[in-house]
Amino acid sequence: MKILYSILYYFLIRASNLYHKIIYIKFRTKYDIDKSFRFNGKEIIFYGDGEIIINKDSYIGSYSTIQAGKDQKVIIGNNCMISHNVRIYTSTAIPDQDFNIKPLKGKTGNVIIGNAVWIGANVFINPGITVGENSIIGANSVVTKNVPDNAIVGGIPAKLIRLKSSLSNRND
């Protein structure tokens, strides 16, 4: 019986991997994603009628979502590391309103992530945000304001922790 379970498990894993590869091929067809971009895991979702542009040598982890609403863009630079369970949205409802009154008021805006950005696990990036180059967004953060170049931010809402020290000693 153990052997049967092992064989079944093997085939289920292979089928799951194939399913995800097919979905990721669909994303590459619909959006402008560099061939070197890596989908690092499962259940990654890209959706919306806007543009998703992802440049060279970046990756995104399992259970992450990128939403690009109509007439909106998400642009991700080169060499970006996006961890698992990250949410990036170009549209959302404005929270300071009565949700019984329709239509709901919303906020939209492009999201631009510069080169060499590291985004930790469980991060939410709101519409209209620009994350500067070589910045770090700490795990479990909610980004509600633009992040400058070379910044380390974290928290809810994300706040500047510090700017990176001199980058002249890169090989130390």
Q: Can you characterise this structure?
A:
- It is a single chain.
- With 172 residues, this protein is of the alpha/beta class.
- The chain has one domain (31-163): UDP N-Acetylglucosamine Acyltransferase, domain 1.
- The chain contains 1 helix and 19 strands.
- The strands form 4 sheets. The chain has a 7-stranded mixed β-sheet, with no helix packed on it.
- The N and C termini lie far apart (55 Å).
Brief overview, please?
It contains one helix and 19 strands. With 172 residues, it is α/β, with parallel strands linked by helices. The chain has a single domain, classed as Hexapeptide repeat proteins (UDP N-Acetylglucosamine Acyltransferase, domain 1, 3 Solenoid).
Q: What is the annotated CATH architecture?
A: 3 Solenoid
Shape from CA axes?
A: globular
Strand content: 25-35%
| Helix percent band | 10-25%
Oligomer: single chain
CATH class: Mainly Beta
Count of DSSP E strands? Answer: 19
The overall pLDDT, averaged over residues, is: 93
- Domain count, please report it: 1
Compute the separation of the termini in Å: 55 Å
Alpha-beta content class: alpha/beta
